[in-house]
Write a structure and sequence with these properties.
Layout lengths: L1 H7 L2 H25 L4 H61 L8 E3 L5 E4 L12 E2 L2 H6 L3 E2 L6 H4 L1
Parallel strand pairs: 2-4
Antiparallel strand pairs: 1-2, 1-3
Length: about 160
Amino acid sequence: MRTARLRTVHPALWAGWAAFAAGAVLCVIGWYGVSGERYAERQLPYLASCTIPGAALLVAGAVLFAHGRSVLATARVEELYALLVAAGTADAEESAQLAAAPVAVSGDLLMVPGGTLWHRADCPLVAGKAEAVPVDSKLVANGELSPCPICEPAEADD
């Protein structure tokens, strides 16, 4: 697993770490050289040759590291998007198959006492429920029961 992870690391991350490490080493060498000299004119060569380039490498390393992380994050987002699109097409195919097949086709109509909908007998909302009873035509005529939006028993009457 570790080798697979190392392959996905962007080269800018490695370059950022290398520049950061080189900058830190140069800053330490510059500090050591400056601290050993008493006079400012003898400290300037250490500042010019080690400390300033070291600080520049630290900044460059930070920029490269930030860029590498953003590239890595972008690659991860693109991978997740590709997975989402692939899953979306599979879901679209599955939902198209489900939409083509009717949910319920039975001619018998049932209701649940105290409910507000009437269903076909094979509707998934009432199938297998012992409390489901045949529809009372008076409740439908009075408008107290509405057709189920899942099994759509009103289409059977048309």
